[in-house]
Design brief:
460 residues; globular
Length: 460
């Protein structure tokens, strides 16, 4: 590897790492100054990656299954610049989309290295743990730095950590939790108890957020992940059942120990709940915006300026988001955006489920399962909230999506004959299992006895 490639690789890796750490610790990178730094880090990493790949005689951007729907989405966003009701807001929203796409490619390129992928997953889980400790200190009214101590009046009593909205920290922890579960269920890393401890910590903190959308999305994601591992061949059913039992027990104890959490669960049956009524009112009124601007929408990032024209009588609050990422993107980019959106969702399930089903190494199972589960949680939660509108959560979501797109690189896809060895009059053929890049994953002889040091788990 030449000096240029090494240098650009260091810049690329550092930029992505700083981006994943910086956003959550600054309350989601929602302020102009923090978003500008996030944008700068993303573009710096993207340029470094492009130079590295060109120097190594590779395509500027790595290929992936989501190329066409992402390209169409970017095209519609650019077109909205010429049809927007507020050009400045659309410009900044377009920069945010470019940031997300840059992060996607940075994470996808990182999957070319097994070490880089494991470090990336470890970093995300580590940031989640830090957020949990900050949040617990803040939740129990212990001293905390002033820039993290502010709690909006509407969020009192909720677990917030560095964020200003309980739904957003729940969304972040849902993605970190899924990655941790992927590590546990696949047994990809050593120190399994450490991953179990992280996951249980995430679960307790999510319960304390009182985010009902977060609870539901995480519940569906966890059930799917446990079921997927249980159905895979050679899975450790006892291990899966034990982990499932522990998770259920922890959630149950957390709920029993928190009266507000119990009341929050009961509110799911309350059709007059103010939060539900407000959301339904926003969604109903927002449909008029689609009727008035069906083809080009109002422009990316313009919901705060378009909604006042259809705001229901008596509504006193100012709504900057539609509380549904799907509804908001249709309002802002028009009905044509449904084409890349539905196409992308179809590819997401097709590619994700295929990677989980075909994964035959422990790292491949961990990455495919954890990333799909984390992205699935946000996809579900986004139906009733706006996690992806928050820069830090959007960055993490697209990082996870990038790793999921490259998860097939950790699958043993072919066998290469190494040599024939005669032992006690019997010829044994030694085989190497390698991934799509030619990296050695495991060794096995033809008679069926695997290499005692590696097996199908690969290097971890």
């Amino acid at each position: 590897m030449t000096g240029i490639v090494k240098l650009t690789q260091i810049i690329q890796t550092t930029a992505l790492a700083l981006l994943l750490v910086f956003g959550p610790l600054t309350g989601g990178a929602t302020k102009p100054w923090s978003f500008s730094i996030s944008l700068w880090l993303a573009l710096t990493g993207l340029v470094a990656m492009a130079v590295k790949r060109m120097w190594a005689d590779k395509s500027i951007l790595p290929r992936h299954p989501f190329e066409l729907p992402m390209l169409i989405l970017l095209g519609l966003a650019v077109i909205s610049l010429f049809a927007t009701i507020h050009p400045l807001s659309t410009f900044w929203a377009l920069l945010r989309l470019i940031t997300y796409l840059a992060v996607f490619y940075l994470a996808l390129d990182a999957t070319a290295s097994r070490t880089a992928t494991k470090q990336l997953i470890g970093l995300i889980i580590g940031v989640g743990v830090v957020l949990c400790f900050i949040g617990l200190i803040k939740y129990f009214n212990s001293p905390i730095p002033g820039f993290w101590s502010y709690v909006p009046q509407s969020q009192e009593g909720f677990f917030l950590s560095t964020y200003l909205n309980h739904n957003h920290i729940a969304g972040y922890l849902a993605m970190a939790l899924a990655l941790g579960m992927g590590m546990m269920l696949s047994n990809s890393f050593s120190r399994g108890l450490a991953w179990l401890g992280c996951t249980l910590l995430f679960l307790v903190c999510v319960v304390l957020t009182m985010s009902r959308g977060g609870w539901i999305s995480i519940g569906i994601s966890v059930i799917f992940m446990v079921a997927s591992v249980s159905l895979k061949k050679k899975s450790n059913s006892f291990r899966v059942m034990a982990i499932g039992f522990i998770l259920v027990a922890v959630v149950g104890l957390a709920l029993l120990g928190s009266s507000p959490a119990i009341q929050r669960v009961k509110s799911l049956e309350d059709h007059g709940d103010s939060s539900r009524v407000n959301r339904i009112g926003i969604w109903t009124a927002s449909l008029n915006l689609i009727k008035h601007n069906p083809l080009f929408g109002t422009g990316l990032g313009t919901f705060p300026y378009s909604f006042p024209t259809v705001r229901p009588p008596g509504a006193q609050l100012r709504y900057n988001e539609a509380h549904s990422d799907y509804l908001q993107i249709v309002i802002e980019l028009g009905l044509p955006v449904l084409i890349p959106l539905i196409w992308w969702l179809f590819l997401f399930f097709k590619v994700g489920l295929s990677h989980i089903r075909k994964s035959n190494t422990s790292l491949g199972t961990a990455v495919s399962l954890g990333t799909f589960g984390g992205a699935l949680a946000i996809i579900i939660h986004s139906a009733v909230d706006f996690n992806i509108q928050l820069t830090a959560n959007g960055v993490l979501f697209f990082s996870i999506l990038g790793m999921m797109a490259g998860a097939d690189r950790f699958r043993a896809v072919r066998k290469e004959k190494v040599k024939d060895v005669e032992i006690r009059g019997q010829t044994i053929t030694s085989l190497d299992f390698v991934d799509a890049e030619g990296n050695l994953l495991a060794s096995k002889n033809k008679a069926g006895s695997k290499s005692p040091s590696r097996g199908f788990r690969g290097r971890s």
